[in-house]
Queue: 3 jobs
Job 1
Amino acid sequence: MDRRNLLKYSFSGLAASSLMASGLRESFLKKVEKTSFSLSSTNNDEDYWELVKSEFAFEKGLYYFNNASLGPCPKLVVDATNEFRALLDGFPSKYMWGGWQDEKEATRQKVADMFSADKEEIALVHNTTEGMNLVAHSIELGPGDEVILADHEHPSGTVPWQHWQEIRGFKIVRPKLPILPESKEELIDVYRKAITPNTKVISMVHGTNTNGMILPVKEISQMAHEKGILVAVDAAQTAGTFKIDLHDLACDFYAISGHKFMFTPKGMGVLYAKKDSQKYLKPLIVSRQHFKDPSIRRLENYNTRNYPEMLGMGTAVDYYNLIGAEKREARLRDLKAYFRGKVENDSRFKLKTPGAEDLSCAIQNVEVIGKKVGDVKKMLFDDYMIDCRPIGSHGINGLRISLSVFTTKADVDYLIDALKQV
Ligand SMILES: Cc1ncc(COP(=O)(O)O)c(C=O)c1O
């Protein structure tokens, strides 16, 4: 295969057609070719995952278990974004005002394909916070109406509703979730009990940022829809971890941060809005296209945007596809089992994340018994250069360990050794 065809084959869409059409440098295209070739290998041994890790330029000596706070970009995404930035600065007005129309739509299509959605259901926004704000600002509730927000919601999922509650006077209902449910039915039950005839919206996180627990969005959405309740989902911690089919998930709105497990450039996100539910949404920002474009694009800011990052998101999806959704998910589940297997029968530790496959994936939380989590976090960083997030809320007192495709089993061994020393 000649290079053009190889790129088309392994790096479909943006890099192949539009990137090449955009006059990108030969040196960059060579890197794309090399990475595409090695990552699309069918190998699945530790050497393969070491190779994946080598695609990330971490600070020397750093062990990064904090992907749930912020993800890194693989070098390819960094390089692509820099290429876009150089092009933009070479001819600013051309690229900002229409020159990248096809590339922007190609990015939307890639994101739609990644989540089995329709391109016309995908708004390219900046992050989960923006998506959740857009939903809360749009839905005009009033006195007597209720919104359910369980106790593990992130501030990006609560503050927008609390803000509008003060202005519009609806009620927020805050049920408590168990942190170690035996099954998803236990979680569904919490929501079932919180629903009243006044419930209009359930706003829920897909994966909690506290202990990485996965909530059964599909079942809760089905239950909600039977009662005419809308479901908005904060997907900051799930997008890019396991395979997500948004039509099957059945929620109305799904707000994604690209810059965590999807490895997009920082400040890129997605708001999915189901076709039939788009009528409820109003843009946060309005400008020139507002009265002309009834499509989901009306929810994006039409004026000057961060296009290098937006197109870099397309490259991040290409990168995701190079490894492949199934292989990525299987790896994260394998790492989870490997990590849990090392701590679950050790009386010095207590896992604070449910283990069932439908209840957790890339994020695990572990308590070092008898130690304050803040102290453990500090020791891990000061003595071992391990970065992870201490969680002290909800009675957890545990370290949030994010596992990612750049995590190797040797990294997990290093973490476990350090935890044992601590
Ligand atoms: C569950 C959850 N929701 C929302 C956010 C906010 O993400 P962003 O800053 O990308 O909007 C985070 C960030 O950690 C999160 O964990």
Job 2
Amino acid sequence: MTSFAEAQECYRHRDLRQALYDAGEVIMSDVIVNLHGAEHRDRRRLENRLFRRDTFAYYENSLFPEIIRGTVAPYLADGHAELVSFGHELMMNLAALTSGVDRPHGTPDESFRLYSYLTTFIEGATLAHYTGDKAAKAAEVQTKLEEFDAEFLLPAVERRTNLLARLAAGNVTEEDLPRDVLTVLLRNQDKIPMAHESLRREIAFYLLAGAHTSATAFNRVMHNIFQWVAAHPEDERRVTEDRMFVQRCTHETIRLQPSSPTGMRWALEDITLSNGRKFAKGDRVILDLTVINRDPELFGADAEEFNPDRTLAAEVAPWGLSFGQGMHACIGQDLAAGLRFLDGDVLDNHLSGLVPVAVQTMFDNGCRPDPDNPPEMDASTTRPYFGRYPVVFVR
Ligand code: HEM
């Protein structure tokens, strides 16, 4: 599928079922993005209770700034960083809070182990694109999932179960509960029970969905801004002075380089789209976002290029279809990329999104590509990820 309108209809069609994660079963089999119909609707309704505007504002204004400062501080002191691992470390720290993975010891070693689980889970979810031995990798992911459970998930479940019991006994208040996915799921086990293995996959998925997509976007936004400023030196001051410039660059990056370049669905029935196009039951429908998001009718004659200053009709989202649409539309979109800033909006209470906030922090601290150490691509996957991206901080 290469047309925007057809893709929108496919995302919303109830007889088209998720197909993107069939190879990643070990971690993805029954997580929200892979459920369909009533099962998906119930899970989504439950998790939507957390993913509301007030929670995003609470994360962005109260919870995240300290984590961002704390994560970047050692690198500022060193004067350099490697963006791929830094981006994942930062986004993992934020996603751990959102998903409900505690780090009771707070030691670098503990974070390092969580990071190692996260990288294996990412490989598990994107197994279809893995270039090595897929069966061996799937077995490794399962082992890591069990180790993650023993080390991180079980203590996190226990802490929340105790808090919920104390809430029921009137010993603590709502404000004492963590605002995360794990708490929401545990609190509603009576209405929507989940086996522990399912809970484990869901939390591992949230950890990777929150961390990996945002970290990849973070890296690409940094790269695109470096390139834009090199070609438009007059815009260098905008990176630090115009608070919405970085957000526009983020939306433009996500349009051109979606975290997942394709959407994929199985036709559960024979289907006819409103323009007459037909799919037979069992067809696999592929939505090619790299073409759809570059439609010149919607994004202009220069749609192939990175241009944070493009003007768009109000109904055209600057990120195209990169957050999906319909029932599986990204639950973390506003958290990751904030809200689009429109004429008349007020900067003070504008939700910027964690990717723009993280990128802004880097530029506010004089981040530049390391002139002696060029970036390299990641050879272990067929997807276009950077493998290494050394940067320096110049004040
Ligand atoms: C730049 C960042 C992100 C991008 C580009 C992105 C992209 C997407 C896309 C394309 C989908 C739909 C998949 C489909 O329909 O096949 C999706 C779903 C989802 N995303 Fe994101 N995402 C991002 C950040 C996040 C964050 C920060 C979170 C966590 C809070 C998150 C959690 C989810 C979840 C749970 C779903 C499944 C929703 C459902 O099935 O109902 N995402 N995301």
Job 3
Amino acid sequence: MSTHTAAAPASALPELVVFDKVSKTFGSGATQRVALENVSFAVHDLPGKGELVTLVGPSGCGKSTVLRIIAGLRPHFPPTSGTVRVFGKPVAAPSADRGLVDQKYSLLPHLTVLDNIAFGLKLRGTGLGARHALAREWIKKVGLDGAETKYPQELSGGMQQRVAIAATLILTPRILLMDEPFGALDPKTRLHMQELLIELWRAQETTVFFVTHSVEEALYLGDRVYRMAANPGHMVEELTMPRPDVPPEQMRQQPWFADAAHELLRRLEDEAPAGAPLTAAR
Ligand SMILES: Nc1ncnc2c1ncn2[C@@H]1O[C@H](COP(=O)(O)OP(=O)(O)OP(=O)(O)O)[C@@H](O)[C@H]1O
Ligand SMILES: [Mg+2]
């Protein structure tokens, strides 16, 4: 796979997340599933900016497994073979420097929006006044004003997902892991959430790993896109994309972007081998 182009050679920059020939097998005998086979990639710490890495591929190709191994969450972690390093060290267990926004909403049903968002700070020992003040700032940032005292079941899917995102970002993780976070949203809310994520992410300089089934979302959000394939789960190619400078609706109307999305979809559908860069037509 190609390496990221940066001012300094990537290998000279500090490691952020490195997979070296990582394989993961679940079960044994007739029920054995090879979730990942020989997956290698490296994301380095770029000075002053985090990267946004998107992962695409068919269901079962191991996208969630990659994220959960980075997070240190069982049963995906530890891998069956190979090495995983985060911040230059082997992963040992989950940690607040790696925040996961799960495929399923992971809110606490008995807590209000405000307390859900402040929950991680409470675990860290932040006092009530300070954590509620910070949680209120995040409620504004994700556009949930007025919903402070509501409970998760009183919210729409889009609102719940904004609470989950705020609850994770408030902890300023260096690495943000997002597993199909916008999958259940209507198209308009989804575009709004994409813009919001880009905005929040620029302000935090967090490195984001973002799993999606939408090629447009992968290309719009990703500085690089990892395309995976299934049976067994493996990495096919790494594609680089320019940073978005316009909202997603406008980006979609640009012919070069539409062509890139069309080509990525074709490669996914055909399970094509690694191909040429997608942005040559730009
Ligand atoms: N806890 C588990 N126990 C056994 N097998 C598992 C477990 N989690 C995942 N697998 C298997 O590992 C493979 C990869 O699963 P994974 O959830 O990582 O795929 P995915 O790319 O995230 O799929 P989707 O797009 O459907 O979310 C699949 O074959 C799945 O059945
Ligand atoms: Mg998944």
